[in-house]
Amino acid sequence: MRAELFLAVALGFLACPSFAVEPVARISISASRDRVMVPASLNESNGLAFMLDTGFSMTMIHPDLAEPLKLRRVGEIIVEGIAGEEKAPTYEGAVFNIGGVKHEPRRVDALTSDANRRRRRDGILGSGVFRQFVVEFDLARKQLALYSPTNFNYAGKGEIIPLRFRRRGTTPIIDATITGTNGAAVRAEFEIDTGCDSGICLGQDFIQANHLLDDSQTRAGAKFGVGGGTSTRSGHLPQLQIGSTKIDKPQTDFFLEGSPVDRGLAGHIGMGVLKHFKVTFDYLRKQMILEPSSP
Asked: CATH 2.40.70.10 spans which residues of the chain?
């Protein structure tokens, strides 16, 4: 009887939807131009900060770190960006410590052009971190939590948004609806890019097909990234809807040539939108969770 009671209690506990696991790490983060900056050590070198970026399939380091940290160069790759492509040397032997947990990517890359720019960060934590952990960040509260994917169980009241991936290691994609200045609602596919400080970035083909650009309500701008820069117009769309969550007047960059995303996608949604939420990325279950946040 005792054993049966114990089993019933155990099964009930496992099935209970309110059961929540503790994160393997909690980290205080900083914000640089609405980007998530994570403190971490690399090969026991402390005092470093890395940008958390769903838009990068690889982990990047500043080129100045490779030699002093004794990383082994093993080749190079071509990195594609918003304005072209760039060669990047590839290294092995990097071991990150993020809030007391290890992240050991098979390789890290370094953009040579970063050596000529003002050093605002020591590198980028890309999709490898999101595949190793369930990643939850709250920019308003400047907090990051990492969970083990195998026993993560969300029990909150946030909205769960399905994610898709075109191939392994790529940026997550969601369905969302924008409202144009003419009042028309357009549903499309968008990447989620935490490395972008804009609210929304839209590609030229999508803009033209849906008549979204009104020069009288936008101003000249530019976006910069891998490969250089590209001209844009900056303004606001009336509304963005993700699931049932509505964001009024999101800041929007309209690309005058090319696109920040692959063919067939409308554009990407960046930190200008996500900073208003506590956001959880669960790549194993292909879901993103949005909860309102307050400072």
From this structure: 25-151, 159-292
Q: What is the pTM of this model?
A: 0.88
Q: In the 3-class helix/strand/coil scheme, how is 111-146 assigned residue by residue?
A: CHHHHHCCCCCCEEECHHHHHHCEEEEECCCCEEEE
Both structure tokens of 228: 């250089």
Q: Which residues pair with 235 in a beta bridge?
A: 252
CATH level 3 topology of 25-151: Cathepsin D, subunit A; domain 1 (2.40.70)
Q: Cβ(169)–Cβ(57) under 8 Å?
A: yes
Residues 6 or more apart from 111 whose CB is under 8 A from it? 60, 63, 79, 86, 88, 226
Higher pLDDT, 282 or 11: 282
Q: Assign domain 159-292 to its CATH architecture.
A: Beta Barrel (2.40)
CA separation for the pair 255, 234 (Å, rounded): 9
Distance CA 249, CA 253 (A): 12
b/e per residue, 84-99, with b = 16+ CB within 10 A? eebebbbbeebebbbb
DSSP 195-244: T--SSEEE-HHHHHHHT---GGG-EEEEEEETTEEEEEEEEE-SEEEETT
> What confidence tens digit (pLDDT) does each residue in 52-71 have?
999 988 899 999 999 999 99
DSSP 66: H
